[in-house]
Amino acid sequence: MNLCRNVTEQIFWVGGNDRRLSRFENLFPLSEGMAYNAYVIKDEKNVLLDTVDSSVTMQFLENLETVLAGETLDYLVINHMEPDHCANIETLMKMYPNLKLIGNVKTFQLYEQFYRLHDQDRYIVVKEGEELNIGKHTLKFFLTPMVHWPEVMMTYEMSQGILFSADAFGAFGAHDGNLFADETDYSHKILAEARRYYVNIVGKFGANVIATLKKISSVDIKMICPLHGPIFKTEEDITMILDYYQHWATLTPENDSVLIVYGSMYGNTENAAYLLANELADKGVKDIKMYDVSGMDASYIIADMWRYRHIVFASPNYNVELYFKMDNLIREALALNFKNRQISIMVNYSWGGKALKTMQDYFADSKHFTMVGDPVEIKSSVKDDNVTNIKNLATAIYQSLQ
Ligand code: FEO
Predict the structure, then answer these.
(1) Structure pTM?
(2) Contact 232, 181 (CB under 8 A)
């Protein structure tokens, strides 16, 4: 049975939800599934904006055919040529022989790399700012490269101020019936997964996101329809998500507190991490967050590295190197352009190693990182002199946050 939904009187959601997928891009764990949004505008010409992942093709096609109700599909706008949105293009080209594909030069380069049905007579190549009238609705195309791939564009429906924003403003997670953000408890239920999605999927390209935010500020946005996650239709929600994107893209912390990430083989480095956390709490630091690097997927930790002002990394040496889980976490974060943070370091040695130097080297760029306090160096387990050093570090961190 079809599951299509009204977005407006003439615009319909025809996407699908996948709760069987355990990792998005085969990388990022999903606890609540994934939504793939696709939209139809019914007018003198019928337009589909993006398709869906192959896992939900059957549902998508039934939704699409229900909405079209026997009419043909005239245009497919390809805002994003990543397979979680474009897996059904060839199928649609076969189902609707007069269907035209709308994309930019890079869209069609990627299309022909991924798929075999190359029919260039059916391509409409659009440029920045170009418009297409389909009846009562007019579409305007904005090129927004690297949010998240080079071909990405956004489509702005001019009569109602609706921005079809591709991956931007999306979130991990399937829809629970409610399609609009204002129908959900967004701040408690979805925001963390929107942040984790942003940081891990788009975070590397903050400069492009900032350019895109500037570009779309030139139009009056009444609704944002992303390719994942809920639709934003109230002024309050649109302002909220644009504000979060401004924070995330500029690496501006949301929280003036401390995130402590530790690795620990036998509990001794963990003990040092808790001593530091307790000292900070006793000084009045609120909303401290701790992660065992071995117990949590890096995507969750890195999302909180975008959120907190101060990050403490506490790690043992392992075979004279930085503990592998910690090394992987920091390398992954730096590959996503993690920067603009205060950093403190704690290390544990039993028989030597390079953990301290490796971490100091990772955060050596003083333009982007401020080292706070002296590194705490522990020999196998915490002793009285370490407690003094941990208290001194807590004091330095506390003062840096004032
Ligand atoms: Fe949802 Fe970049 O794909």
Answers:
(1) 0.97
(2) yes
